[in-house]
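Attaching the record inline, Q. Sequence:
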Amino acid sequence: MIYQRTIKQKIDEFLFKGKVIILYGARRVGKTTLSKQLIESYPDSKYINCELLQNKTALETTNSELLRNFLGPYKLVVLDEAQNISDIGLVLKIINDTFPEIQLIATGSSSFELGNKVMEPLTGRSRVFYLYPFSIAEIKEHQDLISIYGNLENILRFGLYPEVFMKTENEAIEELNNIAGNYLYKDILQYENLKRSDLLINLLRAIALQIGYEISLNELSRLLSENIATIKRYLELLEKSFVIFRLQSFSRNLRKEIAKGQKIYFYDLGIRNALIQNFNPLTFRTDVGGLWENFCITERIKRNLNTRQFVNNYFWRTYDQKEIDYIEESGGNLKTFEFKYSAKANAKPPVEFLENYAGSSFEVIHQENFLNFIL
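Structure, as predicted:
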């Protein structure tokens, strides 16, 4: 079954308006499939895999005539995994400036490589989009609400990677182990010739066991016997490879607020569970609260980015353990949320927060109302 990606419509709206489209996403989330769907609507289009040596060699030039000869008479050109091209930012700039009739789409699985190469040359010349594993909004186009609720536990266990979703349990586990073992860290380990694959895996496992909790860099440093600077660097690379993302603590007024805390979540829970090799049913797990929090926040972020709604994301905690799981700030307004897997669980907003941030809203997200939060 082919799922229509929500972001496709937004990309379509920006085509042929003089901007290079940059599409980021982890490996195996469907960037190639989406790219080929985009060019299906345009007969004068060309797909180029930049991981192939012959394509990489042909594109590593600043000679506009050579570039034009290689690209041919096409109006829309996709450069897939474009971070493999040396000086790709300059190459994209030359093509965009010299041949404005060509619409370029460049995809990349690592924003630390592609982003560093295109940021300065393409200033004012690009539009950036992000592709993640399937969202519930995308699944909803093919499934009714009863089916979505029925699949919820499997989504928390196996995630939403396109090649994993709706597979049998054994097939899903096999595919997740394959992605986690062979693809997910490929760009990170190649970047700057990083050699510590063991540190990378151990760091991810340590984070995986702490979803929903504040992360201490000092604690990670002691646990992994590695200096904090290296831990920070690996976290940055994991984030820019779309494996994890971070929420910073929100702090404006109160002296008791944690000002420099952070929480770390996974873009896909199937990958997280593969790292710790725990695919058990929820009945036999002690981490259901963390899974639910990770799921809800990730789906909300997908929803916001897929619909081009840009907000600031935080969590909030005080030194005396008052906390709010998730905060969105937009237009000077604060929306706060608490996540409880059970609809019967009680949760009240901290009085200190509401008193100091007047006008803030508060909502508890549980199994019975989560669709309104993420759709």
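The chain has a mean pLDDT of 93. The longest helix spans residues 288-306.

More tomorrow.
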